[in-house]
Amino acid sequence: MPQPPLLVPELVGAAAAEIEPLSTACQQAVLRSATRRWHAVGVDGSGPARVESGASGSFRGYGADVPVRLGSGPLAGGTGQAVPPGGLPLPMLVAGWLCGLAGAHVVTGELVHPATEPTGCLARGKELVDELSREPGSDWSVLVLADGARTHDAPGAGRVDGRAAGFDAAVAEALAAADAEALAAIDPRLADELGAQGRAAWQVLAGVAIGSGSDWTGELLYSAAPYGVGYHVALWRPR
């Protein structure tokens, strides 16, 4: 799902009506995947970095001091929390807030650098399957936070690129069909030109799906670009 701070009610302000369909879709997705343990994958320039369960932060920098914590249980492994320099970046803040809605007990996370090549993203996704399979229990959900192209034509949008609509239509189709190969084939140069940093996280997701050896079904809950940015919400499940 995407990571706009406007998902948080205290930050939405006058845009409440416009953002409501997106917010509802995000909430439905996490509630329908209501496992007690989550692993969040986001994209940030501080990556690659690991964030342990129990790390905390605030949306203060986005307009309101809304605190979040990754999980409600004890710190993973009983050790100190690992937080990237400068505090939790936006993907982890949104992950903490969303997983809180689902009553998540343990929420670990990781940040992928936006310039990571597709092969590296796929390899990381496959490694993640092995790592989570070694953790106690099997009730893990993986939360992938990724925005699409930032160059759609919309009221108040900045730079517009005519390729954005086709790019995000292809992403939406891949997410709806749980088509890992299509996500793996996203052109990193095109994604970069369109401002779609979420490309790296989607390709980690592709690696998870491929590395699991399972057949997956997809359900697209939302796909639009209300503020000139492509936002998609989808739910993947193994058959």
Question: How would you explain this protein's 3D organization?
Answer:
By secondary structure, the chain is α/β, with parallel strands linked by helices. Strand 3 and strand 4 form a beta hairpin. The strands form three sheets. A four-stranded mixed β-sheet has the order 2-5-1-6, sandwiched between helices. The protein has a two-stranded antiparallel ribbon with strand order 3-4. It has one domain: Protocatechuate 4,5-dioxygenase, Chain B, CATH 3.40.830. Helix 4 packs across helix 8. It is globular, with a radius of gyration of 17 Å. It is 37% helix and 19% strand.
Kindly list the characteristics that best describe this protein.
two-stranded antiparallel ribbon, single chain, four-stranded mixed sheet, Protocatechuate 4,5-dioxygenase, Chain B, globular
Q: What's the topology here?
A:
Blueprint: H1 9-12, H2 16-32, E1 37-43, E2 49-51, E3 56-58, E4 67-69, H3 90-101, E5 106-112, H4 118-133, E6 140-144, H5 164-177, H6 180-184, H7 188-193, H8 199-212, E7 216-224, E8 231-238
Parallel strand pairs: 1-5, 1-6
Antiparallel strand pairs: 2-5, 3-4, 7-8
Helix pairs in contact: 4-8
